[in-house]
Amino acid sequence: MQIRVCTGSEVVLAGRLDVSTVGDVRTALHRALDAGTGQFVVDVTEVEVADATGLGVLVGAHRKAERLERSLVLRGVPPRLQRLLRATRLHRILRVADYALT
Predict the structure, then answer these.
(1) Are the C-beta atoms of 29 and 43 separated by less than 8 Å?
(2) 78 and 49 in contact (C-beta within 8 Å)?
(3) DSSP secondary-structure letter at 42?
(4) Is the dihedral of CA 8, 82, 16, 14 positive or negative?
(5) Which DSSP helix (H) or strand (E) runs through 93?
(6) What are phi and psi of 64, to 5 degrees?
(7) Beta strands of the chain (E only): which ranges?
(8) Partners of 49 in the beta sheet?
(9) CA atoms within 13 A on the CB side of 66
């Protein structure tokens, strides 16, 4: 997993978002959330694989963002991850940019 923290408002993830990488991802997301204000974008364009643990980290970051009066937005969600969000109904919780999940 490659994690690039662009600012306190954007993090770019690439690679596998699974049980083997969630610790580092969680730490990076929480630090970036603590460092910024306003909308928080997580770019997942290059995420190849995500499992339930990875989705849990995104939901946890979403909840932390709400506690900080921020909003988390997923950007560049690939089709495989779109299907996973729908199957788990997380598309109702996590805000997604670039397309409409209805």
Answers:
(1) no
(2) no
(3) E
(4) negative
(5) none
(6) -65, -40
(7) 2-7, 10-17, 39-50, 71-75, 95-96
(8) 16
(9) 9
CA 36/CA 71 separation, integer angstroms? 11
Name the residue among 67, 69, 60 with its Cα closest to residue 17.
Answer: 60
State the angle between helix axes of 52-67 and 22-35 in degrees (0 to 180), rounded to the nearest 10.
20
Please tell me the distance from the alpha carbon of residue 9 to that of residue 75, in angstroms, as a whole number.
12
Amino acid at 87: A
- Asked if residue 75 lies in contact with residue 98, where contact means CB atoms within 8 angstroms, the answer is yes
How large is the average pLDDT for residues 54-81?
A: 96
Is residue 40 helix, strand or coil? strand
pTM here? Answer: 0.90
Average pLDDT over residues 90-100: 82
Number of Cβ atoms within 10 Å of the Cβ of 65: 21
pLDDT at 102: 41
Instruction: Measure the CA–CA gap between 85 and 55, rounded to whole angstroms.
Output: 8
Q: Using CA atoms, how far apart are residues 50 and 15, in angstroms rounded to an integer?
A: 9
Nearest to residue 68, comparing CAs of 8, 6, 4?
A: 8
